[in-house]
Write a structure and sequence with these properties.
- The protein is an all-beta fold and 70 residues long.
- It has one domain (5-60).
- The protein has no helices and 6 strands.
- The chain has strands spanning 5-10, 13-22, 25-30, 40-47, 50-53, 59-61.
- A 6-stranded antiparallel β-sheet has the order 1-2-3-4-5-6, with no helix packed on it.
- It is globular, with a radius of gyration of 12 Å.
């Protein structure tokens, strides 16, 4: 996360965006898409392997292996 860029998997696509961190909130700016029509995701930092999506409170877990299904 030191670079200011992030790659995330949404559905079957990888989305690259930039981010800023304000307190424990990570604000991702992505290209507009059907998955992220507003172009912005806000995630709350919980710990090194978990983030919580601000709008629907879902927990996002860090990938454990080299495949998205691990």
């Amino acid at each position: 996360m030191e670079t200011g860029y992030a790659d995330i998997f949404l559905t079957d696509s990888i989305w690259r965006g930039s981010y800023t961190m304000i307190n424990k909130n990570i604000i991702l700016s992505l290209q507009n898409s059907p998955e992220v029509p507003e172009g912005t995701l806000v995630l709350q930092f919980i710990n090194a392997s978990k983030l919580k999506k601000a709008d629907d409170k879902t927990i996002w877990n860090k990938m454990k292996g080299t495949a998205i299904w691990d």
